[in-house]
Design goal:
alpha+beta; PH-domain like; 3-stranded antiparallel beta sheet; 6 helices
Length: 243
């Protein structure tokens, strides 16, 4: 059932589906069409048009997300009580996990994804799945281009693409031990490297390991992200594990 709130009506107009019966298939088709028309990568040789396209694409993406969310939980207009039957309310779903990077370089939290991330998500997300965080694990070859390596956090799972473009994933229901360790203090860095780090003012160098529930290692952060990013991910996954 489509939502009837004013905001969804405006979003439907933005996405060009105001005259259609809304469904997940309709929204997905409309957003793919918007991505083909307004994705900033299509205007990489015209910076003025690229900037305009990025702003339009952000609006399209925001409209798509809100319509999708309200399609699952529509707002029903109130009518006189005697004209309707009592409606059985479903048990509310637990809120999706959230992650916040606080503006750390190469890290993005929903809904503030740049155009190159939003375009990348089209081929990765499943039905009813929402992206909540994105971390670049390698430098991008060009502005507004998706990095070769990245980690994506969604409402259900973690997705990692490595330098060979191999994609692996871990569902939160299969998430096991998450280990954050200061390799300076633990002695895993040799004394001479610790001494050089102290001279240069480097007091932390953390390793972060993410394991599956049965024990095998899923992913290990070493130099693929700085310590601040590792700490955010560690705290986020601890919250996921406590749900």
């Amino acid at each position: 059932m489509a939502c009837v709130c004013d905001r969804c009506l405006r979003n439907a107009s933005t996405l060009g589906v105001a005259d259609k019966a809304l469904s997940q298939a309709v929204l997905r088709k409309a957003f793919r069409a918007a991505a083909r028309k307004w994705h900033p990568d299509q205007f990489e040789n015209d910076h003025a048009r690229q900037h305009n396209a990025e702003e339009i694409f952000k609006q399209m993406h925001a409209a798509y997300r809100e319509l999708w969310e309200h399609l699952e939980a529509p707002v029903i207009l109130e009518v006189e009580a005697e004209s309707v039957r009592p409606v059985k309310r479903e048990k509310p779903r637990p809120p999706s996990p959230k992650i916040f990077f606080g503006g750390l370089p190469g890290c993005y939290s929903a809904p503030h994804f740049p155009g190159f991330v939003s375009g990348l998500l089209l081929g990765l997300l499943h039905d009813q799945e929402q992206a909540i965080g994105f971390v670049e694990l390698s430098g991008r070859s060009a502005p507004n281009r998706a990095p070769a390596e990245f980690m994506l956090f969604t409402s259900y799972r973690i997705v990692v693409r490595d330098a060979l473009k191999t994609v692996s994933m871990l569902w939160y229901t299969d998430l096991g031990r998450v280990k954050l360790e200061d390799t300076f203090k633990s002695g895993k860095i040799r004394w001479w490297r610790r001494l050089v780090g102290e001279i240069r003012g480097i007091t932390e160098q953390y390793s972060l390991e993410i394991h599956r529930r049965e024990g095998p290692l899923f992913y290990a952060f070493n130099k693929s992200a700085d310590d601040s990013v590792k700490k955010v991910i560690y705290n986020f996954l601890r919250q996921v594990n406590s749900r």
